[in-house]
Prior knowledge:
With 289 residues, the chain is an alpha/beta fold. The protein contains 7 helices and 11 strands.
Amino acid sequence: MAKWKIGIIGGSGLYQLDGLQNEQWLQVQSPWGDPSDSVLTGVIGDTECVFLPRHGRGHRIGPSQLNYRANIDALKRLGVTDIVSISAVGSLCEEMAPGDFVVVDQFIDRTFAREKSFFGDGLVAHVSVADPVCPRLSALAADAGQMAGATMHRDGTYLAMEGPQFSTRAESHLYRQWGANVIGMTAMPEAKLAREAELPYALVGMVTDYDCWREDEAPVEVETLIAQLHANAGKGRDLVAQLIASLPEIRSASPIDSVLDYALITDPARRDSKLVAKLDAVAGRVLNT
């Protein structure tokens, strides 16, 4: 019987989980380097959970310095079956107000200084990210947010910027023209790497501000953002608890569980053995068959 093991990546403002039993902080060794922090393991009800503070405890690591590959590899290495990312976002549209939550369904990736794939020279692979999130997990997250009392938006396009600076007004207006609804700095390459690791992924954005496209008000400042983060955090933790409580008892298979079946391009005889060894957790299912 397949069981859920939920990985929670906590972004700005979400540094702990409520209701976690048998808590234990574990250091995970990854061939991709150091994850952001140790991971907190435990159970909520009958469901195993693994919590990773994306920026490290105390928010030590900036968005461009995060080791996204090590973070995803660590969760996969611990047997996580699905990932829920909780992230602070700015709003690029009137209807998504500060304090609202958004379950993202699409991304525009404008990052440029990050390693974006586990694969490369010596072992090439291509996975589809046409639909970059898991619809099953996203729907469960949206329902959980409503049960937690949040104003939920069930879809939205996330513009991933490099940062760490916030947008210029010209950029903010441009992203609105592109159809982006929210903006943040950490969803990419996180979502793409989760797909390469065959991990269904959902992202809940907690809206903190209106970025800087509103000409009649001051642009976002860290002080305002932090205040809204604190206001959002309680509902974010409640959402996670409600989500885990609402999971079906049995985890049925997802198509995302097997996206690597036809993704590897490099001839097995020409694969780089060192890269193959590093992929033992991420792609071991297909490399060891």
